[in-house]
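Hello,

I think I submitted the magnesium ion job twice by accident. Can you confirm which output corresponds to this input? Input:
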Amino acid sequence: MTSFVKPKIRRLNEPTNGLGKTRADYDGAMSTLCAGCGHDSVTAALARAFYELSTDPKDVVKVSGIGCSSKTTTYFLKDAHGANTVHGRMPSFATGAAAVNKNLTYVGVSGDGDSLSIGLGQMAHAIRRNVDMIYMLENNGVYGLTKGQFSASSDIGSKAKKGATNMLPPIDPAIMALSIGATFVARSFSGDKQQLVSLIKAGIAHRGFALIDVISPCVSFNDHKGSTKSYAHTYQYYHKAVHADYVPPSEEITASYDEGEAMPVELHDGGSILLRKLDKDYDPTNRASAMEKLMQSQQTQEILTGLLYIDESRPAMAEHKKLPETPLHSIPYSKLNPGADALRKLQDEFR
Amino acid sequence: MTSFVKPKIRRLNEPTNGLGKTRADYDGAMSTLCAGCGHDSVTAALARAFYELSTDPKDVVKVSGIGCSSKTTTYFLKDAHGANTVHGRMPSFATGAAAVNKNLTYVGVSGDGDSLSIGLGQMAHAIRRNVDMIYMLENNGVYGLTKGQFSASSDIGSKAKKGATNMLPPIDPAIMALSIGATFVARSFSGDKQQLVSLIKAGIAHRGFALIDVISPCVSFNDHKGSTKSYAHTYQYYHKAVHADYVPPSEEITASYDEGEAMPVELHDGGSILLRKLDKDYDPTNRASAMEKLMQSQQTQEILTGLLYIDESRPAMAEHKKLPETPLHSIPYSKLNPGADALRKLQDEFR
Amino acid sequence: MNGPGINDFTLRIATVNGTGSASANGLLMKAIFRMGVPVVGKNIFPSNIQGLPTWYEIRVTGDGYAGRDGETHFVIAMNPETYADDLAELAPGGVLLYDSTWPRPQLLSRPDVTVLGAPLSAMCNEAFKAARSRILMKNMAYVGAAAALLNLDLGVIEQLVTEMFAGKEKLIPLNMQAVALGHDYAKQNFKCPLDFRVTPLDKTKGKVMIDGNTAAGIGAVFGGATFGAWYPITPSTSLMDAFQKYCEELRVDPETGQNNFCILQAEDELAAAGLTIGAAWAGARGFTPTSGPGVSLMSEFIGFAYYTEVPLVICDIQRVGPSTGMPTRTQQCDIQLCAYASHGDTRHLVLFPAHPGECFEFSAKALDLAERFQTPVFFLSDIDIGMNDWMVDELTWPEDYVPDRGKVLNAEQLEEVDAFYRYLDVDGDTIPYRTLPGTHPKGAYFLRGSGHTKLGRYTEKGPEYKEVVDRLYEKWKRAAAFMPEPVVKKSDRPARYGMIAIGSSDAAVTEARDRLEAAGVPVDYMRVRGFPFSDDVTAFIDAHEEVFVVEQNRDAQLMNLLITETSAPKEKLVPVLHYSGEPLNFRFVYEAVETALKVRKIA
Amino acid sequence: MNGPGINDFTLRIATVNGTGSASANGLLMKAIFRMGVPVVGKNIFPSNIQGLPTWYEIRVTGDGYAGRDGETHFVIAMNPETYADDLAELAPGGVLLYDSTWPRPQLLSRPDVTVLGAPLSAMCNEAFKAARSRILMKNMAYVGAAAALLNLDLGVIEQLVTEMFAGKEKLIPLNMQAVALGHDYAKQNFKCPLDFRVTPLDKTKGKVMIDGNTAAGIGAVFGGATFGAWYPITPSTSLMDAFQKYCEELRVDPETGQNNFCILQAEDELAAAGLTIGAAWAGARGFTPTSGPGVSLMSEFIGFAYYTEVPLVICDIQRVGPSTGMPTRTQQCDIQLCAYASHGDTRHLVLFPAHPGECFEFSAKALDLAERFQTPVFFLSDIDIGMNDWMVDELTWPEDYVPDRGKVLNAEQLEEVDAFYRYLDVDGDTIPYRTLPGTHPKGAYFLRGSGHTKLGRYTEKGPEYKEVVDRLYEKWKRAAAFMPEPVVKKSDRPARYGMIAIGSSDAAVTEARDRLEAAGVPVDYMRVRGFPFSDDVTAFIDAHEEVFVVEQNRDAQLMNLLITETSAPKEKLVPVLHYSGEPLNFRFVYEAVETALKVRKIA
Ligand SMILES: Cc1ncc(C[n+]2csc(CCOP(=O)(O)OP(=O)(O)O)c2C)c(N)n1
Ligand SMILES: Cc1ncc(C[n+]2csc(CCOP(=O)(O)OP(=O)(O)O)c2C)c(N)n1
Ligand code: SF4
Ligand code: SF4
Ligand SMILES: [Mg+2]
Ligand SMILES: [Mg+2]
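Support: Only one job matched these inputs. Its output is below.
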C-alpha cells in the first residue's frame, strides 16, 4: 500500500528534450486509479507537456485537493514538490505557495467535486486573484472516490449508475470562470491527448490563472448509458472550437495562417499562443461572445472545447502584489529587519 | 444595548391592507445602523412589499448571515420568526428551514461580504437547488461591520476610504447567478424604493430562488469619491432595463401594454409578473442574451437594474424533492413509523 | 490463551479490491452464520476503488464473542502483492491457501505453517470463457476450497448463491460450478477438513448480521427523523444511504406520492450542518452523518447550535486521524472533539454505541436527546461498528415508542401564554420552550449566535450574557441523568481492578475480562454509553484500586475526559491505547492488563 | 481596599459610538501619561458602527498596576441612554459629570455621589457653527472640564492637540477653544480640582502606550515574517492592519519598488489557513490573525498542518464565545480549542502573551517555534490585550536576533545527502528535515494529510502510521522546554496558597496578590506563558496546598489543561472564573480568593 515508484529503465536512443531528459523523467509513482480512468490520461498529458516544454521538474509545484483526481499529483513529475491538501481547499494552499516564489510553475489538479461543491469559493477567488498557475479540473460529473454521488457538474437529466436522475442545473466551470473574470479558460477531453497537451502548454505559458476543464470519464461510476460524462457521450457531442498552440519565445511563428481563422496572442514571456479557430465566428478574445457561445452550447449539449477565452492583459497576482524576484524565503533577514532606529522612530506616536 | 422595539402607535385612519394590518405592523426592532445606510431603505422596502402583499407576518421566515446587512432581519416583521446565523452560511440554514414547511415565505438577507466571499459556495448551491426563497444581497462593495475592507463585489479601480485601489475583478452576483442556472435574477438600488418594492413582490411570487442584488451604499466606509458603490456613482450610472410588476391571481391584467415592450409572465400561483422593458432589445426570458447585456454593462460601468432574468419553468426545491403539504414537523409519528412488520421484513437480507 | 479449534479460529482472505471478492467473502461468512455458528466479519479495505490490497477477516466464534481474536489461523492468499505479509500474519500451526497457478516456493519459508496450493486461476480459465467471469469465478472457487477445508455445508452455500442471483438465475449453476471446482480440488488434494473447522450449532437463531451504519439509518427511520443532510465521506456514507433507501421504500405517501422526509446532499460539511440546523430550527427531526474532517468543518456551526439551543444530531463515524489520516481504518479519535467542539465555552452530549444493535437504538435516542435538550448530540460510532457486519439480536422496535419532541409550544399553547420568551427557564428544568416558524405571532422570536438575554433579546451586558451561559452549563449537567446508563460486568469475585471502555472497544474488552477472570485475575468492567458521565462512573472508579481505560487513540482522550469530568482521582486511571487502525482484539487488551499487573507485582 | 486618591482613581467616559469621542478619550489618557503618571485605558465598545453606547475607562494608577480596579470614581456621562447605568456604576463618594444642556433631575437620586452638570452642548452650539464640529467640540469640552477637575496640565493637552492636528493646523485653536470652554466652566462652577486627581510623577519615562495587536504586528515585521493572510474579524483585524502598515513603510524595496512581503486578504478563514500553510510549506514565515470563529473554521486545516508538519502561526485574539458571542468583549475562552484543535489526535503549541510587550516578543517567538517544530503555534491573545492601549517598556529588538528557521535543507546540503526522507528523525531530536520547492530534485517530496510512513510514502499500515504519530507526540512534549518559562512572583513569606493565571489576567492577579499579601495572606503566583507546560508548573502546584487558577471563561479551561497535562493532583486546583466580557479587575480576584480562604477557615 505504499506508493510504488515506477522502475526507470532508459531505452537506447530514447528521445530527449532540451534538458536532455526523457519523457519517463516526467513520470511519478504508479497510478492506483481504476484501469481506464480518464484521470490517468490527463496525468500522461501533463507529463508530456512538461517534457515538451523542457521544464526542469524541480521547478514545478504540484498541488491538489482530495479525490481520485486529486491523487494524480503523485503520478507525474516525481522530482517536483507536491502536496495533497484537504478537500476543496487546494486553491488557497496553491495561492499561498505561489506567493512565495514567482519563479516556479504551479500546477493544481482537482475534481469536479473538489472544485465545484466544497471548493467553489476557493476556486472562484483564486481566479479573481489571477494566481499564476494552471488549474486542471478533471471533470467526471461524479464523486469518484466516495463511489458515485452526483457532483455539481452533473447535467440535468443525467443518470447515476444506481438509477437516480439529476434534477439540478450544472455548474459549468468554464462559464463560471468567465463570469467572474478568468483570464484563460479552456476545455478539453482526456481522450484527446493532442489537444490537451497543447492547451496545457498554453496554460502554463499564460500569465495568470489558466483553467482547463477536462472531461475525464469515471469508468467505475459514471461511464454508463444515460450519463452525460461517459466516454461515449463525450465523443458524440465533442466539438472543437479553438485550437491553441504554444510557440516559445525562441521560435518564430512560421506556420502560415489565414487571417480570419488564426491569430497569435502575444505572451508576457515573449512567446505566443497561436490560435486556430475551428469555429469561424468564435472569438476567444471576447469575453461576452465566448460566454454567449458557451451558454448556447449548454442548450445543445455540445461540448465546446479548446481555448475558449484568453486575456493576457490583466496582471497576475505576482504583479499586483509586487512580489519580489527573490523568493520570500530567501530574502536575507538584514533586509527584513527594519532596524533599531526605525523601531525607535515608529514608537513616537505611542508616547 | 438590548434591541429596542419601536413604539407602536396606530394613527387614526391609517391605511390598512387586506389583512387589516397597517404598514407599521410590518416593522421590527429599531435599526442600529448608521444614519443614511442603504440597508435601512432595503428594510423599509421589504416591510412595504409584505404589507402590500397582505402577507401574514407569522408566515414569513427571515434568515441572514453576519454583517451590517445581515443585522437587518431584526428590523422588519417582528412577528415573524427570524435567525441570524453564522457568517456566510445563511443559504444552508435557509434551505434546511425551507425544506420543512413549503407553505411559508422565506426571506434571506445578506451582504456582499457574506455572500460573495465566505458564502459564495453556499449561495451558488442554494441557487442550484432553486430553493423557494427571496435572497436580498445588500451590496455595498465593502465589509461594513468590520470597517471598510474591499469585498468581492468591488470594481477594479474602486478606491477604499483609506486610499487603497482594488485590483481584482468583481464578482457580479447577477452574472454569477445566471451562469449557474438561477431562475430569477434582479438588480436594484436602495435609493429606488418603488422599483425595489416591485421587484421584492415579484421575487416573493416567483417559484424558486429569487436573487435581488441591491446596491445599498455604506455611508461610513464606501460613499466617498472614487468608490463605485457610492450613492453618487450609483445615481450616475443607474440604468433601468426591465420593470416588473407583480399582479396577484385575483387581479386581471388591465394595464394596456404594447406587445413589443411589455409582457406578462405567468406564475405558478395563478398570478403573473408584468414586465415592462425599458430597454427595447432586452429579453429577460432569454438567459444567454441577459448574460450578454450584463457583461456588456460591466464594460460601460452601467448599472443595469430591474428584473434581469426570469424562468418560471424550472421546479423549485419543494417540487423536485416532493415535499409534502404537511410540514415535516407535523406529520404524525404513526405515518413516520413503518411498523413492526416492515422492520421484520427488511431484516430478511441480514440473515 | 486459546488456539484454533472447532468453531474457534480466524480466517483471513487477502485479495485485490475491485475484483468482486466482497460478495464471495460475504458468502463465506453468511454460510457459517447460517450453520448456526457465531461469526465476526472485518473488512480491511484500502482508500481507493480498484487494484489495491484488501482483506476480509472472519472469526468463527462458537463462544459468541463479538470482537477480534488477534491471531490468524487460516489465510486465503489471493494477492501476490501481500503474500509475504499474509504469511507473516499466520499464527504457528496455521494454514495458508494460495493460487498455485503461479507456484511460489518462497511461501514455504515458514516451517511452522502449512501452505496449500490450489491452481484456482488455471481451473477457472479452463472452465470459463469471459475474462471478467474468470476473475469472479476464481473467487467462488476459493469459497469452494474453503468449504471443503472448513467443513462448510454446500447446501447452505448453494442456497446463498441462489439468493444472491435472484433475478439472474442462469448465473447460479455457473457459480456453483466454480464452487465445486475449488471444493473438489481441495477434497482430492488436501486432508479435509482441517483440525480447526466449523460444526453446526444453534447459536444464531433470532440474530441478524448487520452493519452499524445500516442499523443507524433504520433507527433514524423508526425514530421518526424526517430530515437528513450530508456530504459524502467515508465511512459515514452508508448511513445516509440506508436512511435514504428505507425512506424511499417505507416513507413515500402512497396516496400523494409525496415524501414524508427530505434528504439533501450538501455541497460540503459546513452546509450539511447548516441545512440540518435550519431544518431542526424549523421543527424537523434531523441529523447529519459525517466523519472527523466533517466535524472539524462543522465546528463553527456546532457552537452556534449549542448557544442558540437548536437540536442537532451529528453522527460521527470515526476513522483514523489526524487530517485525512487513514480514511478506511478505524479509531476512536474524536472523543474529545465531540465533547467540546467549537470555540468558546461549549460542551455537548455524546452517545457511544458499541454495536449495530445500539446503533439502531441510539440513532433514535440521539434525536430524542437533541430535541429534549435543544442542543447538539453526537452519535459517536466508528468504521468497525459502522461498516462491518456484526451479529446482533434481530432489531425490534418498542411498540409504545413516542418520539420525545421536547418543549415546543403549539398555536393553542401560545394563544394562552401572556408572552413567550425563547430563553426563559419557566419551570426550572434548565430547558426553555421553543416555537416553530409559522405557528403563531406570539411565538415569533429571533435566533442569534450573538449575546442574548434570557428573554431572547440582543445584549452586550455581562450579567445578562452570563445568566444564559450559566443555564446552558446546568442544562448540560442535567443531561447526564438522561444518557443511557453504563453497562457493568462484574467479576464473580471481589475485584481490585476495573476496566472502562466505550463503543467498539467493548467486544474485545468483554472477552479479555472473561479470560482474565478465567486466568485468575478478577476484573470488573464498566462500559460507558454517554457523556456527560453519570455518577455511576465516578463510583466505579472509586470502588477500584486501579482502572484501565481501554480506547482506540493515541492521546487517551476518554481517560482525559474521565479525569476532568468526574471527581475520581486521576491517579487511579491507567491508559490502554490501541491505534493502529485495525479493530481492537482481545489479546491486545488481555496482554496490556496482564503486563501492567505483573509490573505491579514485581514492583 | 483602596479608595480614590491622588493618582489613584478610575474615570469612565460614557458616549455614543461614531461621535468622535475616541480621540478625545485618547487625549485624556495620553495627557495623564505625559504627566508621568501610569494609566490603564480600556475601551468598551459595541458591535456596530454608529449610535450605540460605548465607554472608555481610564484608571490612573500611580503604583503602576496595569489592570483594572473594579470600581469607578468619576464618570463623564455623555450618553443619556446609559445615565442610569453610569450612575449605578459609581462607587460611593464618586463624581458624575454630565451635559446639563438638558438637565436631568433623576441623576440626583443617589445621595452618596456628587453630580455635576455642565452645559457642554449649549456652550459648543453657541461657539461653533457646523453641526458635525459641534458634536466633535463637545468631546473636547469634556476634556477641558475633566482637565480642570482632575488637575491635568493644559500645556500637555495643547501639545497633544497640536500633534493630533499636524497638517490641519487651523483646527488646533478651535479645539483648544472647546477645551477652554469646558475647563473654564468647571473652574468657575465646581470646586476644582477634586480630591482624587492627578499630580505629575516621573513614572512613564521609557514607556509607551500601545495596544497588543499593533505590537504583535510590529513583532511580526521584526521577527522576519514575510507572509500574512487573514479574513477580517473583530478583534484581530488591527493586528494585520499594523503588519501591513509597517511593511508598507519599512519593507518595500527602495530600488525595485517590490514588496519584501506578501499580504493576502482571504475569502474566509478556511482560505486564510490554506494560504498561510501553503506559503509556509513553500518556505515563507507566515501567520494568520483571527478570533474564535476563525479557529473553528480553520480546524480541518490545523490538523493537516499538524500531521504534515507545516509551520503555522495562528494569532487568536479571543472574544466572548460561544458562537458569534459578544464580538467586542473579552474572554479567554479558546484555550482548550487551541490546545487540541482539529479531529483525531492533535495537540499544539500555545503562547500566552500577557501584555503588548509580550505580544511584540511572542509574535516573533511564535514564528520561531513554528519553524523549529514544524507545527501549528497559537499566539493566544484577547481583546483586552489586543485592542486596549497598555503602558509597557519601550519596545526594543535584540541586536543579535536571528530568526530560527528550523531544519531546512538547502541545495548544497541536498547535494550531499544520499537520500532525503521528509519524516525521518535522522538525529533523534524528534524533528525531521524539510525542503522547499524549487531547491533540488533530491529534495522533492510529497506532502499528504493521509497516512504516511517516516519516509514520506503513503501507507495504510498500522505500525508505519504509528511510528509517525508517536514521534509527533514526542516532538510536542519536547517543545515544552522551548516555551517561554513561567514567571513567578513569590511571597516574602512562605505561602500555603498559590495562584496560576495566563495572559490578560496577569495584571489583575498580580495586583490582587500584592494586596492579599499586604492584607496578611501570603500567596505565590505563577504566570504560565506557554503550552505544553514545563515541569515548573507541576512543581509549583506540588509546592502549595491549594492553587487558585484564575481565568476568564466559564468552563475552567486552563484548569482542565493543568489537570490533564501535568502530573499535579487535581484536588489542589480551585477555579476562579470571570467571564462577563469586561477585562478582569483585581477586586474580583482578591475577593474570590479571600472568600474561598474564609470558607476554609470556617470549615
Ligand atoms: C472534508 C471532507 N469531506 C469529504 C471527504 C470525502 N471525499 C473524498 S473525495 C470526495 C469527492 C471527490 O470528488 P471529485 O473531486 O469529483 O473527485 P473524483 O474522485 O471524482 O476524481 C469526497 C466527498 C473528504 N475527504 N474530506
Ligand atoms: C467566521 C467569521 N469571520 C469573520 C467575521 C467578521 N465579519 C463580520 S461581518 C463581516 C463582513 C460583512 O460584510 P458584508 O456581508 O458585506 O456586510 P455589510 O456589513 O457590508 O453590510 C465580517 C468579515 C465573522 N463574524 N465571522
Ligand atoms: S472511481 Fe472513477 S474517478 Fe476514481 S479512479 Fe476509478 S474511474 Fe477514476
Ligand atoms: S458601516 Fe456601512 S453598512 Fe454598516 S451600518 Fe454603517 S453605513 Fe451601513
Ligand atoms: Mg469527480
Ligand atoms: Mg458589504
